[in-house]
Write a structure and sequence with these properties.
Layout (H helix, E strand, L loop, with lengths): L4 H7 L6 E5 L2 E5 L10 E5 L11 H22 L3 E5 L10 E6 L6 H10 L12
Antiparallel strand pairs: 1-2, 2-3, 3-5, 4-5
Length: about 130
């Protein structure tokens, strides 16, 4: 879809750093504005808006992408936890946020909300801009 920002990333030919492809899915870094080290996305390359678009093989591809992404985050950043979130309301192209948590002071939905907005308090886990 031409007006979908995720489709534009995967089909524009712009220089976006894709960490890996797994069949129907790509793993990439979040935007720097998210300000969180290790924050990754898993996205289908095609404009899929629900799980109904997936094939049996797509679920396998997603599992491989999730394994790669979580291992990469743990290896490179050693978070306490990784939250995996998909809402796909603002952008209907289904996609998954892998949000590492590095603190015990802020957890759960509050942490996720701030991470999605790029508004986590400054700390050593904040990504350099």
């Amino acid at each position: 879809m031409l007006d979908c920002p995720i489709c534009q990333i995967h089909h524009s030919g712009e220089n976006v750093e894709i960490l890996a492809h797994f069949g129907a899915f790509a793993v990439r870094h979040s935007e720097k504005e998210k300000r969180l080290k290790g924050y990754l996305y898993i996205e289908p390359i095609l404009h899929w808006t629900s799980y109904q678009d997936w094939t049996t093989g797509s679920f396998v591809d997603f599992g491989n992408a999730l394994q790669f992404a979580t291992e990469r985050i743990y290896q490179d950043h050693s978070p306490l936890k990784i939250y995996t979130v998909t809402v796909s309301e603002m952008i209907p192209h289904i996609h998954f946020h892998l949000i590492p948590r590095y603190t015990e002071e802020l957890k759960g939905v509050d942490y996720i909300r701030l991470a999605l907005q790029g508004k986590l308090p400054d700390s050593s886990y904040i990504r350099d801009l």
